[in-house]
What we know:
By secondary structure, the protein is an all-beta fold. About 0% of the residues lie in helices and about 50% in strands. The protein has one helix spanning about 10, and strands spanning about 70-75, 80-85, 90-100, 105-110, 115-120, 125, 135, 140-145, 150-155, 160, 170-175, 180-185, 190-195, 200-205, 215-220, 225-230, 235-240, 240-245, 250-260, 260-270, 275-280, 280-285, 290-295, 300-304. About 40% of the residues are buried. Keywords: Signal.
Amino acid sequence: MHKPTSVSRARAGLYPALLLAITLTACTPDTSASEPPDGSAPTEVPAQAAPAQTPPPDRVLAPPPQSIEVGWTELPGRFSEIGVGGIGEDPSVWALSAERWPGSPEVNYWNGDGWDALGRDAAALAVGPNGYPWIVDSDGRIFEWNGTDWIDRPGSARDIGIGADGSVWIIGTDPAPGGYGIYRWTETSWEQAPGGAVAIDVATQGDAAVGHQSEPWIIDENNRISRWTGSDWSQQPGEARDIGVGRNGAVWIIGTASAPGGHSIATWNGEDWASAPGGAVKISVDANGFPYAVTDDNRLLRGT
């Protein structure tokens, strides 16, 4: 599979079908006229337009793909949730077990050969650029792993997402139009953003004019997809049940159409969603844009 690449709002504008204007060059009319030999009035010759110039093939951009090929490799174990982070070639992969331990699934870390259980239960997780996760437990409490201990953070949440710049966003527990309140971590407290949602993940990109910025993507209770503009939410096409964003900006979703393994899988092509083979119920994306998915029978798949 070709590596999905980052698609910022600046790049998204490159995809309309007609990108190059065709220039019509008009010939300058000949205003001089010769007198006919019979002495009748001179006849003006009408101006002629030059033929339209066809852009060279190498200057015409192809439309974005409507589908993408993905091979899926199954990892050992049975899991209910997946989170992938880190910034290197070797992703930091964390997962929640399919079994409850003791009150909800147990946090596990992939060591390259197998899984290390951390003896901590959780209901949701996200992994930062440092390779360490933040989790939400079955009571909605929020914890950050520092490599040796779990740090208790204030507030309560239902879902959590972390950008490549380390920015942390959560879906809170307070009802709001669209689902539940949306909050950003300020290093000391949670700052509320407008709107409501039920799922979130975070890109780190933005317009070149304002520099890179935290850009979360959300799914609301009606399966609508939106992305943060810096001040409000911009609804995107399609519907989804889960969403994951890689460090390079690649965005993947679990759609709403039924498929073997759960529901449809797709990736953002700059204008719309390009379908991928297979089906799943949960998804996360590594630093290079490759997806990891959990199916409805708790299999963990890695996209290749």
